[in-house]
Fold:
Amino acid sequence: MTPKAIQDYYPEPYAHCYGCGRLNEHGLQIKSYVQGDEVVAVFRPEPYHIAIPGFVYGGLIASLIDCHSIATAAAAAHHARGSDMDQGPPLRFVTAALRVDFLRPSPLGATLHLKARAKEVKGRKVVVDATLSVEGEVCAQAEVVAVEIPEEMQIREQAT
Amino acid sequence: MTPKAIQDYYPEPYAHCYGCGRLNEHGLQIKSYVQGDEVVAVFRPEPYHIAIPGFVYGGLIASLIDCHSIATAAAAAHHARGSDMDQGPPLRFVTAALRVDFLRPSPLGATLHLKARAKEVKGRKVVVDATLSVEGEVCAQAEVVAVEIPEEMQIREQAT
Structure:
């Protein structure tokens, strides 16, 4: 497993994301690590991350899958181009489509385990398959279409 | 527009949801209202609900769409059965599938407008189409498959 999380390679302007920004003190601060040909993460929900009593909020699950898959896309794109994440310019992706199937309710009070893998890397687009499991059971499976940050968002970002 | 939000009809055990529970002080407390044959809601993100600087976090958008669509499903199911939401037993749905296409980035600092409509009501399943717009432009469109809360979740809920 890589010792440094993928999100910790994001340069400062991209490190404020509510889901995975190390600089967002209100956020979830998800950390995703390359492990072989997969990317893994764990997350422990707070008691208030509730849907109905006893179960994890689906919007949190979607959020975790989103950021984890975007990190997976960045790592896969670097790998495909033969570049290292710590050698600039770093690649940063955004979500074009998020599809989550909730297979069974995720119990609150346990650690959530995320796994993801890029199944397609083509130009500026990466398609990622992801799962979220609790105690060995897959509770959600997802497909995320990630695209490299479009120019208009980079311009806006630089203007901030 | 109905004067009372759909979520305010949810009985107390179902009013703790992080996205829309009136009793979750840490949550988003989304309120969805029936307006003609649509269901509408507005939400003003906090500055920390950020993706990259200047834009709203996609996981928040997915969360808002999720809860808003679940409320839409409840209202549609009551309507289809000719029952009122304030006359028990109330119907409560969970998300089976969430599909969000992010058409364009949603700027931070503006009000998000949600609209949803049930396009299929069949047995315990309701399929909802939803959009999220900012300043008149649709930024995300979604399809949500909602199902009435399954028995095992009700049992777990009663045991809490």
Observations:
- Residues 6-159 of chain B form a domain with the Thiol Ester Dehydrase; Chain A fold (CATH 3.10.129.10).
- Residues 58-81 of chain B form the longest helix (24 residues).
- The beta strands of chain B are 33-35, 38-43, 93-102, 112-122, 125-134, 137-148.
- Chain B touches chain A through 47 residues (CB under 8 Å).
